[in-house]
Specification:
CATH class of the largest domain: Alpha Beta
Strand order of the largest sheet: 7-6-5-8-9
Order of helices and strands: HEHEHEHEHEHEEEHHEHHHH
Largest sheet: 5 strands, parallel
Low-confidence stretches: 329-334
Oligomer: single chain
Shape: globular
CATH superfamily of the largest domain: Aspartate/ornithine carbamoyltransferase
Number of domains: 2
Bound molecules: N-carbamoyl-L-aspartate
Distance between the termini: 48 Å
Helix content: 25-40%
CATH architecture of the largest domain: 3-Layer(aba) Sandwich
Number of helices: 12
Number of strands: 9
Strand content: 5-15%
């Protein structure tokens, strides 16, 4: 696998391979020394042209736990501010000799475009409304860990589907892994062409909640919408939020999920976010193991030895050098 741009480029076997590998890395994370040497000597650039807390820190930690060198490129303090184009910025970074670039960008398709300007691996960390493949992987991983499988599970995805790259990636991953997905949203927050997506569409949560295995809520993306699409956050909560009363309709085994950042009291009530069925912080924890798996598969050596020491003892420089080790015979002229 050279790049990770879109969940649609992967089939179910590819997804399961990454989830299995992430299980190995989750084991590594539990160790006292949660680090392996797999990417020692590789350089990974995190190029975030859009704000992020969890995705950026998660990729940063994942790369460091694989012993890679990490460069954090902050668009807000770069020469982009002086008018440099995205292409020149990327070509400049790539000219320093890097192995991978993890890109978040406000424009759909930017990571794909960047693959044409560099030989480095490109990993999509969220592009516009389009895709957020590592989010879909970490969410699939979280569901599989808790419920054993996604096959046959009933998943509700509720909220701002139209502007959500998380919805697009997750629907693709969940349905490839055999889940049945129903989206719930006001008509104004459903995308054009939703009838061609592999989902059912509903306008009310109540009939679905008692049968659900997963209830996944999306952030209202105010920065991407015109105010005309949604009268108010309060009205959204009343009709589509996971309120305390609605959460009572969910079975005990069901998972409550949100990709974050969450508007407590809008998509999910504050008390519900802390409900024992909420796995919102597990999603964050699992993100690191999943991103380790993605970095390993794209820039790693193609093999994984969990027990390889991170800093193997360096060979004794004297004994390793035949000239120095045997100065009588050697002396440099032997
Ligand atoms: C999401 C994103 O940025 O796409 N957050 C994330 O990466 N966890 C969702 C969002 O911003 O609502």
């Amino acid at each position: 696998m050279k790049h990770l741009l879109d969940i649609d480029d992967l089939d179910a076997d590819d997804l399961l391979d990454l989830l299995d590998l992430a299980e190995d890395f989750a084991e590594v994370q539990k160790r006292e020394m949660p680090k392996v040497p797999a990417l020692r000597g590789r350089t990974i650039v995190l190029a975030f042209f859009e704000d992020s807390t969890r995705t950026r820190t998660s990729f940063d930690l994942a790369a460091r736990r694989l012993s890679a060198d990490v460069i954090n490129f902050a668009a807000s303090s770069s020469s982009l501010k002086k008018g440099e184009s995205l292409r020149d910025t990327i070509e400049t970074i790539a000219a320093m000799g890097i192995d991978a670039i993890v890109v978040r960008h406000g424009s759909s398709g930017a990571p794909q475009q960047i693959t044409r300007w560099t030989d480095a691996t490109v990993i999509n960390a969220g592009d516009g409304w389009h895709q957020h493949p590592t989010q879909a992987l970490l969410d699939s991983f979280t569901i599989r860990r808790r419920l054993g499988t996604l096959a046959g599970k009933r998943v509700i995805i509720c909220g701002d589907i139209k502007h959500s790259r998380v919805a697009r990636s997750n629907i693709s991953a969940f349905t490839k892994l055999g889940a049945e997905v129903t989206v719930v949203a006001p008509g104004t927050l459903l995308p054009v062409g939703i009838d061609r997506w592999p989902v059912r569409v509903a306008t009310r949560l109540e009939p679905l909640l008692p049968e659900a295995d997963v209830a996944y809520f999306l952030r209202i993306q105010h920065e991407r919408m015109s105010p005309a699409l949604l009268p108010s956050d309060r009205e959204f909560r009343t009709l589509f939020g996971l309120t305390v009363e609605r959460a009572r309709l969910l079975p005990d085994h069901a998972l409550i999920m949100h990709p974050g950042p969450m508007n407590r009291g809008v998509e999910v009530d504050a008390e519900v976010a802390d409900d024992p069925r909420s796995v919102i912080l597990d999603q964050v924890t699992n993100g690191v193991a999943v991103r380790m798996a993605v970095l390993f598969r794209t820039v790693g050596p193609g093999r994984f030895e969990v027990d390889e020491p991170v800093n193997p003892a360096p060979a004794d420089p004297v004994l390793a050098n035949p000239v120095l080790a045997n100065p009588v015979r050697g002396g440099g002229n032997a």
